[in-house]
Amino acid sequence: MSDHAIALPVPPDALRRKVGDAILNLALQVPASAEHEMTQPLVRARAIGRSAARQASLMAASLALPPGVLGWLTVLPELVAVWRLQAQMVSDIAAAYGKTASLNREHMLYCLFRHLAAQLFRDVVVRVGERVMIRRASLALLQSLAQALGIRVAQGIVGKGAARLVPLIGAVGVGAYAYFDTTQVARTAIELFSSDVVDEAALEKMA
């Protein structure tokens, strides 16, 4: 092993499981929103996205400040905190488009992680003409999706942890990534909720 190699404080397999479990818990708890349907939802949705991106950047940068092993230990809490903020943002964007009643765990997972692994959602979110069809996923499928996403996210944690070895510079980088990541989630949410979204059962009734 190189003298510069960094030891993970959590074994890789355990880390992937922890991340996967965190993602599943997030999907199962869709947050309520205080937003209301807007006559110009795009304007409000973009404002919600910008505000959330700034908050995510500050939060992630603050959690990335501790050096060394402490920095490693903040990686998963930082991710979960940012995801929760993003989940609230998705809920608020859905409300601005008047889609609160139909918002579900499949929407949430898709909006939060599509930009990381779009191919994992091919069997859950399908575009049919001008409509977007959402297929209801069983708990087993959600668990499988969460664990697959956990593997993807865990692969990036090594880089995130390494950044914390240089606290101030690392914190700036982590904050910038959280901002970018949150804008990607907002973009997916706007694209989804501005479309005609139906679940599979409703589409079959209309056929």
Structure, described:
- The protein is mainly α and 207 residues long.
- The chain has one domain (12-122, 138-195).
- Helix content is 65%, strand content 6%.
- It has a three-stranded mixed β-sheet.
- Helix 1 (12-27) packs parallel to helix 4, helix 2 (41-63) runs antiparallel to helix 4 and helix 2 packs antiparallel against helix 7 (167-193).
- The longest helix is centred in the C-terminal third of the chain and has 27 residues, at 167-193.
- It is globular.
Keywords:
207 residues, mainly alpha, three-stranded mixed beta sheet, 8 helices, 3 strands, 65% helix, globular, disordered N terminus
Task: Map the helices and strands.
Layout (H helix, E strand, L loop, with lengths): L11 H16 L13 H23 L4 H6 L1 H22 L8 H9 L11 E4 L2 E4 L4 H25 L3 H27 L2 E4 H7 L1
Parallel strand pairs: 2-3
Antiparallel strand pairs: 1-2
Helix pairs in contact: 1-4, 1-6, 2-4, 2-7, 4-7, 5-7
